[in-house]
C-alpha cells in the first residue's frame, strides 16, 4: 500500500495573516482528498524554529472527512470535530499555536495521517506520544508546506 496517497490542500502557499499570531490566530481550513482510512491525525510543525522543531498543532481521532474546518476551537475535544482529541503544542497549550516566527520566513509542514483505528491517547499528549501511538496504524499519509515571515 502506498502510504503517501493523501492530497492535502491549504489553499495558500504563504499563511494569510488571520492564521498567524499577527492576526486572529485561527486554524486554517484543510482539504483532504483520497482518504479511505476511517480516522485522521494531524501534526503541524516548524523545523526552522531557533530552539529546534516547534510543534504548532496535534490532533487525532478525527472521524474520516474531506475537510477540516477553519477555526477549530483550542480545547481538548473541539466541538467542530466530534470525536477528535487535541494534544499539547510546543507552547504548552492545547490546540493550535499560530505561526509567529521571531525573524525571517519559516516553513510550516502539515502532516496528515489516515489511521485504521482510533488512538488510545489522552488529550494534551505530546507529539512524541502521538507518534508512538500511531505506530502500525498509519494506512495513508500526505503533507503540504506553507511559509510565513513577519515584517
**Rg measurement, Å:** 14 Å
Output the number of helix runs: 1
Strand arrangement within the widest β-sheet reads 6-4-3-7-8
CATH level-four homologous superfamily name: PEBP-like
Q: Beta-sheet strand percentage?
A: 25-35%
CATH class: Alpha Beta
Classification by helices and strands: mainly beta
Question: Which helices and strands occur, and which strands form pairs?
Answer:
Layout: E1 7-9, E2 30-33, E3 39-46, E4 54-63, E5 67-68, E6 85-86, E7 105-115, H1 127-134, E8 138-149
Antiparallel strand pairs: 1-2, 2-5, 3-4, 3-7, 4-6, 7-8
Task: Describe what is shown at a glance.
With 151 residues, the chain is mainly beta. It has one helix spanning 127-134, and strands spanning 7-9, 30-33, 39-46, 54-63, 67-68, 85-86, 105-115, 138-149.
Features:
three-stranded antiparallel sheet; five-stranded antiparallel sheet; globular; Phosphatidylethanolamine-binding Protein; single chain; 151 residues; mainly beta; 1 helix
What does this structure look like?
This protein is mostly beta strands and 151 residues long. It has a single domain, classed as Alpha-Beta Complex (Phosphatidylethanolamine-binding Protein). Helices cover 5% and strands 34% of the residues. It has one helix and eight strands. The mean pLDDT is 96.
Amino acid at each position: 500500500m502506498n502510504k503517501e496517497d493523501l492530497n492535502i490542500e491549504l489553499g495558500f502557499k504563504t499563511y494569510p495573516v488571520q492564521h498567524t499570531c499577527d492576526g486572529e490566530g485561527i486554524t486554517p481550513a484543510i482539504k483532504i482528498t483520497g482518504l479511505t482510512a476511517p480516522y485522521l491525525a494531524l501534526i503541524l510543525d516548524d523545523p526552522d524554529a531557533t530552539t529546534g522543531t516547534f510543534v504548532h498543532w496535534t490532533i487525532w481521532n478525527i472521524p474520516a472527512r474531506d475537510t477540516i474546518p477553519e477555526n477549530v476551537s483550542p480545547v481538548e475535544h473541539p466541538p467542530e470535530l466530534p470525536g477528535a482529541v487535541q494534544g499539547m503544542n510546543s507552547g504548552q497549550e492545547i490546540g493550535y499555536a499560530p505561526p509567529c516566527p521571531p525573524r525571517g520566513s519559516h516553513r510550516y509542514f502539515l502532516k496528515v495521517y489516515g489511521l485504521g483505528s482510533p488512538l488510545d491517547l489522552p488529550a494534551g499528549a505530546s507529539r512524541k506520544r502521538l507518534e508512538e501511538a500511531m505506530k502500525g496504524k498509519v494506512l495513508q499519509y500526505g503533507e503540504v508546506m506553507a511559509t510565513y515571515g513577519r515584517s
